């Protein structure tokens, strides 16, 4: 399955990582899925950039990369379980 999605913005709260997509959709995934992000400061979390033509997110200070496609596929697997 190949999904081409581009991120527009990233937000956090105490439970979820929110990624707004260029097409208007918003993906929410539990912060507990991302141990490296859970351990980060708010300043580190807000220091991100989109990579790979907007299909990935990089936190260079944390040396952490996240694929938006993997977030969508993880949601599908959770719903199927």
Please summarize what this structure is.
This protein has 81 residues and is of the alpha+beta class. It has helices at residues 35-38, 42-46, 68-80; strands spanning 7-12, 16-21, 26-30, 49-51, 56-59, 64-67. The relative contact order is 0.21.
H/E topology pattern: EEEHHEEEH
Largest sheet: 3 strands, antiparallel
Number of domains: 1
Mean pLDDT: 89
Low-confidence stretches: none
Strand line-up of the largest beta sheet: 1-2-3
At the first level of CATH, the class is Alpha Beta
The gyration radius over C-alpha positions equals 12 Å
Helix count? Answer: 3
- The helicity comes to 25-40%
Q: And the CATH topology?
A: NE0471 N-terminal domain-like
Shape: globular
Percent of residues in beta strands: 25-35%
Total beta-strand segments: 6
Task: Please state the structural category.
Answer: alpha+beta
Cα separation of the termini? 18 Å
- Name the CATH superfamily classification: Uncharacterised protein PF10387, DUF2442
Tell me the CATH architecture.
2-Layer Sandwich
